[in-house]
Specification:
Layout: E1 2-3, E2 5-6, H1 15-26, H2 39-50, H3 60-75, E3 79-89, E4 94-105, E5 112-118, H4 140-159, E6 165-171, H5 187-195, E7 204-208, E8 217-219, H6 221-226, H7 228-240, E9 246-250, H8 257-263, E10 268-272, H9 296-310
Parallel strand pairs: 5-6, 5-7, 7-10, 8-9
Antiparallel strand pairs: 1-2, 3-4, 4-6
């Protein structure tokens, strides 16, 4: 089994605001108070991305989503930069422009970490029925979920200063590859590591496929191989936050952007759910990878872990 990616083994509020929140809560209306990590808002970010349609490089949906993501990072107070690059697709004979999007928070802090996800979606549903395999997917979980969680985290760290500086990177071209050819995947992270001039993090955390409504996140194999101490620290944060979706056992080895980062000298782990209760719930690389298979609760769980972990770091 492969996932482009290859799977080898199994603040205090004014009293008036407080009372208004209580009143709305009595009415059954969800309220998002300033300074909170909110899984419902993250889920809306996920839906917003899928409404552009498939985010396949070279399409109008891809171009429109890029502007949306740049605006969201800017709204959160990031110093936003773009890293465009060209890619020639040997399958289609077309050259397309791909873009890594970077949001830097608290750039004055020298001690920094990198958080990342891929924002493109797969051009073909190669794990679907034969008649669907040439159709592009929406990628609600595979792509949009990790981006959504980081957009919400960006809002959180805008109003809650972390002990370290944070760079968020949305990699492009992660999912454009041909099955069986690992070199054709993770194009954005490859370009970033080969052309990086100013981002030197202590480590990186990659989010991918973390929106599944039946979330089960085991310790990904390459993460455990390359950066076991970082895996243990994140899973310890999950335990301290009371998040039951992070499993203690070793899961699959998944070739993903974190492998590229590790090979470039950046210790990196992948928080990814590649566990499925049964074949009928395996929506990866199919047309069924839609927002209704994802949940705010899953995004909240991952967000809670990130907040606990980040705010326990030494400055």
């Amino acid at each position: 089994m492969m996932k482009n990616k290859i799977n080898l083994i199994p603040g205090k509020l004014p009293i008036s605001v407080l009372f208004s929140g209580i009143f709305l809560g009595i009415l059954g209306i969800h309220t998002c108070q300033a300074g909170e990590y909110d899984g419902n808002r993250a889920y809306q970010f996920l839906i917003d991305q899928t409404q552009f349609g498939p985010r396949v490089p070279g399409t109008s949906g891809h171009a429109a989503c890029l502007e949306y993501l740049a605006d969201k990072l800017d709204d959160a107070g990031a110093v936003v930069s773009r890293q465009p690059f060209m890619h020639y697709n040997t399958e289609t004979g077309q050259t397309v422009t791909m873009t890594n999007l970077i949001g830097s928070f608290y750039p004055e802090k020298m001690n920094r970490i990198l958080l990342c996800a891929h924002w493109d979606s797969r051009p073909f549903a190669d794990q679907d029925r034969l008649e669907n395999r040439d159709k592009p997917i929406l990628g609600a979980n595979d792509g949009a979920s990790g981006v959504a969680a980081l957009l919400e985290l960006a809002l959180y760290i805008q109003t809650n200063e972390p002990p370290v500086g944070i760079d968020i990177i949305f990699f492009d071209g992660e999912d454009s590859g041909k099955e069986g050819d690992l070199d054709s995947y993770c194009l954005g992270s490859r370009y970033f590591t080969q052309n990086n001039r100013g981002i030197f993090p202590r480590f990186a955390i990659l989010l991918d496929m973390i929106g599944d409504a039946q979330l089960q996140i085991a310790k990904e194999g390459y993460s455990q191989q390359y950066a076991p101490d970082l895996v243990n620290r994140v899973w310890d944060a999950a335990e301290r936050s009371g998040t039951h979706q992070f499993l203690p056992e070793l899961g699959h080895y998944v070739f993903d952007d974190h492998v590229v980062l590790n090979e470039a000298g950046i210790p990196a782990i992948d928080i990814i759910d590649f566990e499925y209760p049964d074949a009928s719930h395996r929506y990866w690389h199919t047309l069924q990878d839609t927002a209704d298979k994802c949940s705010p609760e899953s995004l909240q769980a991952v967000g809670n872990v990130l907040v606990v972990f980040i705010f326990s770091l030494e400055p």
